[in-house]
Amino acid sequence: MPGPKKKTAKTKRAQPKATPAADIQSFRERIDGIDTQIHQLLNERARVAKQVGASKVAQGLHTADFYRPEREAQVLRKAIERNEGPLRNEEIVRLFREIMSACLAQEEPLKVAFLGPEGTFSQQAVLKHFGHSVRALPMGEIREVFEEVQAGHADFGVVPVENSTEGTVNHTLDMFLMSPLKICGEVELRIHQHLLGKMSGLPAISRVCSHQQSLAQCRQWLDEHLPGVERIAASSNAEAARRARDEDGTAAIAGQTAAEVYGLNLIAHDIEDRPDNTTRFLVIGRKPFDASGNDKTTLLFSAGDTQSPGTLHRLLTPLAQNNISMTRIESRPSRKHKWDYVFFIDVQGHASESPLKEALEALKKQASLFRVLGSYPCAVL
Amino acid sequence: MPGPKKKTAKTKRAQPKATPAADIQSFRERIDGIDTQIHQLLNERARVAKQVGASKVAQGLHTADFYRPEREAQVLRKAIERNEGPLRNEEIVRLFREIMSACLAQEEPLKVAFLGPEGTFSQQAVLKHFGHSVRALPMGEIREVFEEVQAGHADFGVVPVENSTEGTVNHTLDMFLMSPLKICGEVELRIHQHLLGKMSGLPAISRVCSHQQSLAQCRQWLDEHLPGVERIAASSNAEAARRARDEDGTAAIAGQTAAEVYGLNLIAHDIEDRPDNTTRFLVIGRKPFDASGNDKTTLLFSAGDTQSPGTLHRLLTPLAQNNISMTRIESRPSRKHKWDYVFFIDVQGHASESPLKEALEALKKQASLFRVLGSYPCAVL
């Protein structure tokens, strides 16, 4: 479909592709000019960041102390605010994360421990949050992630705290019962599952193919909408989508990307059983950080031995009275007494700022165990 | 170790950390200003890139055609040339790759097939070469990477061609015998192995721990320098380095990074048996590209049935006469006749430019089979 032709003289007939070479050349020159400016600014930014570092070193702080999650969150929020495109917020945030990562890594790259092996969602979370200029250290167990950070061998750790398979969550929460480490960030990887295929509706489906975990995440939906239809485990969702493209009667469960990549119809969307099918990770470190302006706080507390029905409600009253939103609550056995529970609660706000500060003071008085596990910036994209 | 104190008045005693807050604040404001400029330039670059795209669409080209490996190589080489630091060339190249990746992905992200699963070196090679704004599609076999590209389901493919374990190389070369695809890039991931430990020399080592592949890559060196010392396979080199830190008498084979991360001594460096312990990948696509100014060409040819001793020498004469450097030669059975071989040769230069152009014309006349598999930019970092 050739569009309206430009009136540029076609001098170079010899050129195999009929591109208006002069146009392309002038665009490229403009891009080269822009790149030169970007390049200068990147190095200027790195120089200023180095000065910040030098002034911190002069005060006896270590390189790992240069990383300020609250500052990074602010930089990224500002970038989203001022973004007018055409680059999408997602791309801009990714580029600025990488720029900060490169500037920070000038002295000594941050070491970040995570639950390995390499190639896992946990590693994705590390790179999404810290950029690619860090040293990501794979650990065999969640416990080891905590140990490496506590011993100072790693500057930070990234551990899963909520995911759809659930296996690891409790382990992470239980670690906080024993560990003095602080939560200093969160990372979210959202996962939506869709039913994809070449067919136009459910009746034409004779088998559903996907990675075992994705099949498990959509079990209820499949039981309800495709009872009796064979389910086949594939090595990956991408592999499943490819089969759906090549085999008659095969549908795949996979993400939006797979539909586009393999040219499949979206037969049913968001079929995951849990609407919040997000894997959420916590960043753990050795010290607390300042407020970023949009923060979350994770609390650990217990009512003690009294197990009267109104205990939890009474404990939560100070939060309600101070208008604090609670975004999550989990209970776990305290491991001290039978039927004694501890609660992990996520609330909005930073522990050092009103109104959360006052609410926590009141809560503290009533709880037998009370700890702020950390105040940290809400995940930016 | 507090350094020389600045004379800034410490007004804010309440602040827990003794940072000269005013200094930090002014640095941060400067960085915010720089970020705003970078941001504007990134979007301006994206707009110009979009115009280039629009002008190509107007000529009936597809989005996948916007990717120009020779242009990308030129942009990166210019960036290295003008780089004065403090950001290292490696970081600058990485950032510009990501910027180009984001600009290119505005319309529709490139789809790149690779030998999966995710988390492999092949995936690393895809992301290193194309940046993170592509859709990386894991395939189960090298053959499938070729098929996906040939069918147009993927825009490009990335396949290993040389690696230390060797298993996959021949398979890739053999695919080129049948496939019409063109080589349009190369990616190098260099791997150096070191012997690391807490001890200061070889006599104190009672066991060597590493990933099985790394142990295999250093077998000769170990046989020679540490005969009879136990070799233990670990799940990763990082795991091995951790054991070397925690266990007396254990040394690890791992990269430079592990020495820094785990605080180990470098007992012996570059102990890999092959000095060129680089995994090299080829980027494959459906069409050839123009010269970038520093290119390589891969040729496939055969002398035919005559197996007289001087055949290969005679075939290579036109290259020598035209002063063409040959960087690599591999022979493979032609699969047509017994003892009939084909040769894969890498030479410097682009097939469309002198002196390679003339040399190839002469070579072509003498060979029974002759194909230019591709001319492509030499790997940039």
From TrEMBL, chains A, B:
Domain Prephenate dehydratase: 111-286
GO CC annotations, alphabetized: cytoplasm
GO biological process, any: chorismate metabolic process
Domain of life: Bacteria
Stretches with biased composition (Basic residues): 1-15
Pathway note: Metabolic intermediate biosynthesis; prephenate biosynthesis; prephenate from chorismate: step 1/1; Amino-acid biosynthesis; L-phenylalanine biosynthesis; phenylpyruvate from prephenate: step 1/1
UniProt keyword list: Amino-acid biosynthesis, Aromatic amino acid biosynthesis, Cytoplasm, Isomerase, Lyase, Multifunctional enzyme, Phenylalanine biosynthesis
Endoplasmic reticulum in keyword set: no
Molecular functions (GO terms): chorismate mutase activity; prephenate dehydratase activity
SMART domains to which the protein is assigned, alphabetical: CM_2 (SM00830)
UniProt xrefs under InterPro entries: ACT-like_dom_sf, ACT_dom, Chor_mutase/pphenate_deHydtase, Chorismate_II_sf, CM_dom_sf, CM_II_prokaryot, G/b/e-P-prot_chorismate_mutase, Preph_deHydtase
Chorismate mutase domain sequence ranges: 18-111
Catalysed reactions, semicolon-separated: prephenate + H(+) = 3-phenylpyruvate + CO2 + H2O; chorismate = prephenate
Entry annotated with the keyword Calcium: no
Site (Essential for prephenate dehydratase activity): residue numbering on this chain: 279
Region (Disordered): 1-22
Enzyme Commission number(s): 4.2.1.51, 5.4.99.5
A matching Pfam family: CM_2
CDD domains membership: ACT_CM-PDT, PBP2_PDT_1
Compartment(s): Cytoplasm
Ranges for domain ACT: 300-377
Functional description taken from the UniProt entry: Catalyzes the Claisen rearrangement of chorismate to prephenate and the decarboxylation/dehydration of prephenate to phenylpyruvate.
NCBIfam families linked: CM_P2 (TIGR01807), PRK11898.1 (NF008865)
Name of this chain's protein: Bifunctional chorismate mutase/prephenate dehydratase
Biological source species: Povalibacter uvarum
